[in-house]
Amino acid sequence: MTTTSSLPASDPDFLARETLRLLGPAPDNWVPGHAGIDHNVAIVGGGQSGSAYAFALRRAGIGHVTMLDAAPDGTLAGVWRTRARMQKLRTPKNLVGPELGLPALGFQAWYEARHGAEAYAGIDRIPRLAWADYLDWYRGFLGVQVRYGTRVVHIEPVTGGPVAHFRLHLETDGAPRIETARKVVLANGVAGNGAPFVPAVLLRAVAAGLAAHTADAIDFDALRGKTVAVLGAAASAFDAAAVALESGAAAVHMFARRDHIAATPVSRVRAYPGLYDNYHALPDATRWEQAIRYRRAGSTPPADSVERVLRFPQFRLHLSTSLSSAEVESGRIVAQARGETLRFDFAIAGTGYVVDPSARPELADIASHILRWRDRYQPPADARDDELAASPYLGSGLEYLEKTPGATPWLRDIHVHNPAGFASVGVPLGDVPSMRRDIPASVARISRDLLLADLALHEQRIRGDVPADFGAELYAGALWKPANTALAAA
In terms of DSSP bridges, do strands 165-172 and 150-158 run parallel, antiparallel, or are they unpaired? Predict the structure, then answer.
């Protein structure tokens, strides 16, 4: 008889299947149901973080989890086949990702099963499209279901009833719909607590269709033979410049405010386990100091992203330069930079994102109640940073905290797994480096909160009668019977 463990090792999913077999089935859902509650947890975002949350919650015995994604289908979900334009991931290839401690479910095992160990050894970092293919496999193999074409337009707290929960106002394929959930996880990407930042100088060009942010879908083929401006010099700006050049742009001019390209990855100095594993326990002053140090050093593009644009003689780099104006004339952008007039056919803003929950329709009504870093910590004058201070001050389970104690306790039921949590956790939430530590921490908090919210029901459950596995007849024949029964009776 053939068993699961005797499947041929040539099956590329053999190790993954064996891991799940040895791990055993996921626990049954232990969360009590309540009338009017559709979901225990709603995950907003069906990318790598949302998928990892879905698997981790399942293994924690938390059922009735739904994952929502606004993309119309899986090919457009996440970033890896859309606005991510790098050739390789920017992180080391051996970091723990969505496998969360189960190596057979990780990228290395998946890649080696299809291409061999030598092929994996031969890559320095993970190719972007290979990572996208791996995530597709991860969702499919684990049966992670994503409800595509579903956008969360409003999160409404409901405090009445047996348990606190949220009404989720949704648009599903354009039709309005309301569902309820006790917990919400915001695994919705870099703009999940704000919006792409477009400098004011480019707003007229954006309105005229002559400029876009790197977060936007850009028709790079339309830039063939055109002159393009790129504002910013972080990784996404270099990636966009490279794709424009590779698509045949006549020239690309990059404008950087600094007098150099940021090249010092200061976050590496705190990547050791003691600090990484316990980052949330650090004093606020230390966490703020590290966040400021990172922002002042600048986001560093990988060297190969810089080399990618340097292959083109039509690439021009302007250091210590910003556009002082950008007017639209005759279908082109006429810009002023350091007293020089420059003309462009298109401009791309690689200028990052602003943290502003009120800019998100689903968070607009609750944004004013969210505790921010500016509410919790006042840095020295020389360490002020108003943009960083607008970041949410997250709890140890990545939950929002209330600005006014006791006023909005339901905020702790919204968990943030997007880069707005950087000041609190020291890494961009949602990127691979955040997964090993922060997803288990958040799931543990979700589990604890759901248990304590129904404590009376669980106390009733654990006091319940338990039938005996066997009766006294099982061991009756082994009872000792003294020879002198009279003496035994005495």
Answer: antiparallel
Is 4-193+354-457 CATH 3.10.290.10?
no
Contacts of 33 (CB under 8 A, 6+ apart): 64
Report the pLDDT value the prediction gives residue 176, as an integer from 0 to 100.
96
Separation of CA 403 from chain center: 24
All CATH 3.50.50.60 domain ranges in the chain, comma separated: 4-193+354-457, 198-263+300-351
Question: What number of other Cβ atoms are within 10 A of residue 84's Cβ?
Answer: 17
**187 pLDDT more than 90:** yes
Taking the CB of residue 415, how many other CB atoms lie within 10 A of it? 28
Q: What is the CATH number of domain 198-263+300-351?
A: 3.50.50.60
Q: In 3D, which of 100, 159, 88, 94 has the Cα closest to residue 129?
A: 88
**Bridge partners, 195 (sequence order):** 354
pLDDT tens digits, 96-153: 999 999 999 999 999 999 999 999 999 999 999 999 999 999 999 999 999 999 999 9
Range in 8-17, 93-102, 141-150, 285-294 the model is least confident about: 8-17
Q: Is 298 left (phi over 0), alpha (psi -120 to 50) or beta?
A: left
Contact (CB, 8 A) for 138 and 77: no
* Class of residue 39 by CB neighbours under 10 A (exposed 0-12, middle 13-18, buried 19+): buried
